[in-house]
Structure formats: C-alpha cells, structure tokens
Amino acid sequence: MTARFEIVSRSSIFRGYVFDVERRTVDGPDGRFSREVAAHKGAVAILATDADGRIAVISQYRATFDRYTLEIPAGTCDVEGESALETAKRELAEEIGATATNWELLGRFMNSPGWTNQVMHIFRATDLVIGAPTPHGPEEQTSLVRWLSREELRDALRNEPAIDSTMAVALHSLYGSFFD
Question: What is the mean pLDDT of the chain?
C-alpha cells in the first residue's frame, strides 16, 4: 500500500517570466509539511532533421550559465489553449524558420520532479521546408542556427562542459546510445 499525501493549500511566493514559485502545504502520513515548487506551464523541444539527416541545433545565450549553449529548438507552452504539438510547430518556425510535414512524439519527461512540475514534450520533425526564423526575445535575436550531421553533433557535444538534458533525451530516444 502506498502512503497517502494531499496538497491542502498553495500560496504564491514569486511570479516570474518563465515560472512561478508556490509554497505547497501537504498532509502526509507523518503530519503536515511544506515544499516550494517551481510551477511551469510545460515546454516542447523539437529534434528537426533535414533530408540529409542533419540535425538543427541552436547556439543561444543562457543567463543561467552566462554563456552560449547548444540546444535543439524548444519553447514554453505559454499560449492558452494551444496543444503541445501546436506549440512545437510555432517554436520550430520562430527559432529556425522551418515547417514540417511529419511530426512524431518521441516522449514526455519530467525535468526534475523534486522541485518543478515542468513536463517536456519532445517531438521529431521531418520533411522540412526551411525559411527565415522569426526570433522572439533578446536571446533568440542573437542565436545561431546550425545544421549538423550526427558525427558533427557528437563531436560538438563532447566539447561542451555540460549538455542540455532535453537534447540528450531526444537524441537517446531516437538513436539509442548517441555518444558511443
């Protein structure tokens, strides 16, 4: 039998651009306790591959690490009523200027269930038509889109101090052990 827990109250601690922070009070088998949770609307990431099998990656500045990181196109589910697939299509067009005929859901994962409720939806996009990106926000304005073969991407990621977990999950779900 599993122990029973119930959230009995929530209070806002912080409201931000990307996420909010809530204090949740929980009744559990050993009494009442509280946890701070980064409340997030969810996000999408897209593993876009062109007709030559090259993968779209973005070099984009991230204030969290104060450097440019290598990522696959991604974005927050921040439009009310928009499905995760619709968000992915919008983000692919904004970030790399592409539309895709074929979409496949590779999976969903919790980024870090100990402190955030963010769920990431990962899609694969193929049969692309590539146009001009329409970047939003200061980071996207200076981002650089690159199309890399699997070998080029593997080499680039080996030189990174740490890699984006979303890209790692996407690559692993499609290619298995990507770094072998």
Answer: 93
